[in-house]
Amino acid sequence: MAVLVWIEQVNGEPVASSWETLGAAKTAAEGLGAPVCALVLGAETDTIAAGAQTLGVDRVLTMADPQLADYRLSAYAAAVEQAVAAAGATVLMMAATTRGRELSGTVACRLGAGLAPDIVDLRVEAGKLVAVRSLYSGNILADVHFESAMQVLSVRPRAFAAPVAGATAGNVEALSFALEAGQATEQVLETRVTDSGEVSLTDAKIIVSGGRGVAADPAKGFALVTELAGVLGAAVGASRAAVDAGYIPYKHQVGQTGKTVRPDLYIAAGISGAIQHLAGMGASKMIVAINKDRDAPIFERAHYGIVGDLFEVLPALTEAFRQRLK
Ligand SMILES: Cc1cc2nc3c(=O)[nH]c(=O)nc-3n(C[C@H](O)[C@H](O)[C@H](O)COP(=O)(O)OP(=O)(O)OC[C@H]3O[C@@H](n4cnc5c(N)ncnc54)[C@H](O)[C@@H]3O)c2cc1C
Questions:
Q1: Where are the alpha helices (DSSP H) in 112-198?
Q2: How far apart are CA 62 and CA 56, in angstroms?
Q3: How does pLDDT run across 137-149, given as a tens digit for each residue?
Q4: Whose CA is nearest to atom 29 of ligand 1?
Q5: Positions of CATH 3.40.50.620 in the chain
Q6: Potential cystine with 96: which of 118, 170, 216, 258 (Cβ 3.0-4.6 Å)?
Q7: 259 - beta bridge partners?
Q8: What architecture does CATH give domain 3-174?
Q9: Distance from C-alpha of 169 to C-alpha of 49, rounded to nearest angstrom
Q10: Whole-number Å distance between alpha carbons of 91 and 26
């Protein structure tokens, strides 16, 4: 029995939510009395494997192979299956990123395993793993009990804390990767970068978001949001109303049907605080709301509230931070 965690990498960098998944896996492993194994796949695996070793895992398994240079579902699914067998894993976990959701579902089908997707919590009860899923914008927390021996979970980014790095421990064991002819039919022909220079919303420690409150002059409103974000090294977020109105692309949307974020600081400008928006950012460590309506629901969740016009407040904040952070 072991808990195996796939550590996703993009362009040689580990995905932050994979480390958080390791944090969740350690909780599961402790309760089950099982070891935790990290799995690193790619053309190059040494640097990330060394990082995993500092996070209190029992073993780090690597598969370094040119056929794993690019993420391809069938090749990665084959690799994960082989690693599950090598580790003797009964629990497989990965971050619920776009790739993680696809890969966890595929591997679960192939192994005939139970799947708990996008979990936000877990616990061990009477020696059995119970996964918790958040439904209806966080209004219902559903316990998922597994009936299968093999259990696969994908973990919502920002739902768990990453382990604190410590002394290097756990052996790195290189596994060989075998792909049968015709098993991986996809090819990566081209990679296009769409977010060049932007801070990633899900990984951001600070987010400045704009909502329908910019409607009087949307271009200026989001320019002000972006300027403040630039000074703070923050990512730019948005409410669905702002996205639906075409003020900003969907990739910036925070909430139930957008991204789930958990930054240290979330600044919401001209956002009323609908339940569907709160579902995506309510777990932020500090929420600052700017709204000209003092009765806006966002103020009930905000740690600090500024009652005022965002077209005046945002430039004042930007200038103050610019002076302060010089
Ligand atoms: C199934 C479903 C899924 C959804 N998913 C999402 C989601 O993922 N994310 C999301 O955000 N929403 C989502 N919504 C929509 C959600 O219900 C709200 O409609 C949306 O969040 C409202 O966006 P808003 O706060 O920007 O706009 P509004 O609710 O219109 O609020 C605008 C706010 O700006 C303030 N304001 C106006 N002018 C100014 C000014 N000059 N200065 C300062 N403040 C000003 C107003 O007082 C008001 O509070 C979803 C809805 C449904 C039904």
A1: none
A2: 16
A3: 667 899 999 999 9
A4: 272
A5: 3-174
A6: 118
A7: 254
A8: 3-Layer(aba) Sandwich (3.40)
A9: 11
A10: 12
CATH 3.40.50.1220 location in the chain: 206-324
Q: Can you say how many angstroms the Cα of residue 205 is from the centroid of all Cα atoms in its chain?
A: 12
What's the predicted TM-score (pTM) here? 0.76
Give residue 312 CA to ligand 1 midpoint distance, Å. Answer: 20
Residue 181 C-alpha to ligand 1 middle, in angstroms? 52
pLDDT digits (tens, 9 = 90+) for 173-189: 999 998 887 888 899 99
The predicted pLDDT at position 200 comes to: 79
In the reported structure, the alpha carbon of residue 126 is separated from the centroid of ligand 1 by a whole-number distance in angstroms of 43
User: Rounded to an integer, what distance in angstroms lies between the CA atom of residue 144 and that of residue 244?
Assistant: 34
Please report the pLDDT score of residue 162 as a whole number.
Answer: 93
Q: Tell me, which fold does domain 206-324 have in CATH?
A: Rossmann fold (3.40.50)
Region 226-243 average pLDDT: 97
